[in-house]
Known about the structure:
Layout: E1 6-10, H1 15-26, E2 30-35, H2 50-63, E3 70-74, H3 80-94, E4 99-102, H4 118-145, E5 152-157, H5 170-189, E6 195-202, H6 208-216, H7 237-248, E7 259-262
Parallel strand pairs: 1-2, 1-4, 2-3, 4-5, 5-6, 6-7
Helix pairs in contact: 1-2, 1-7, 3-4, 4-5
Amino acid sequence: VSFRRVAIVIGAGRGIGAETARLLAAQGDAVMLVDRASDDPRVPYHLASVADLNAAADAARSAAPDPAVISTAVADTTDVEAMQAMVTATEARYGGIDAVVAAAGVIAGGVPLWEMPAAQIEAVLDVDLGGVIKAARVALPALLRRSEPREGRFVAIASTAATRGLPELAAYCAAKAGVTGLIRGLAAELRGTGITANCVSPGSTDTQILAESARLYHLAGPREFIPQQVIGRLIEPAEIAASLAWLAGPSSGAVTGTNMAVDGGLGL
Ligand SMILES: NC(=O)c1ccc[n+]([C@@H]2O[C@H](COP(=O)([O-])OP(=O)(O)OC[C@H]3O[C@@H](n4cnc5c(N)ncnc54)[C@H](O)[C@@H]3O)[C@@H](O)[C@H]2O)c1
């Protein structure tokens, strides 16, 4: 088996995470695709299934120079023991880890915060912020186990919701703002290690989370978000994946602590 670097993508069952895994695979990385691959009973829409995760892995294999270096793990980003086991298995299989992309997320809202069921608020904070913290707690020691000089990368997905107040999404705004603060703190903690920490903030990107957002706002569908986008269209998951794959790769070493808007102008 041959590969460039070793990358883990959490939330790789579909959407932005699946596209990121495919792109990293195309660039020659060994990729571990990780997803909960089951519904979260606290949110009222479907998450990725095991079949979705397997399809994402097959797409990555088709793009990879060596399909043997693509693997999957069913693990929940909020379960730190499951995350640790997945990291340990990845290190054992490929000899170390160079990049971790924390792409798992859920959305809930559609009412003001004070009308939101407590379980939904908890799900959003638990997965969208707590899940990134748990991924970081197990990923960064693994990235630090690489010998120097290293080019380790921790990359998370925030959102335009991190910096814009979006009505009926206050919990999601809070979690995503938390991710941007976490990334700044981590970048400072990683001073001089060769490891960077960054996040990408997508605008309206054509995935299941956007479809659920449209439903929460009682819109006919995600295309009704187009007028908010300066580029006049929805963003494709592959366009977000391109920025994540660059931040996860060796040529982004001068960038750390940043929140990169890939938002089609939504945040203007
Ligand atoms: N689509 C957009 O417009 C948009 C905009 C801004 C930010 N984002 C963020 O992008 C990220 C990717 O979302 P997407 O748009 O591809 O939506 P998506 O729903 O298609 O993908 C999310 C993935 O995360 C997985 N997941 C959810 N909870 C998990 C958990 N606890 N553990 C492991 N995996 C879990 C799901 O199964 C799914 O595969 C999310 O963090 C989301 O908040 C999306």
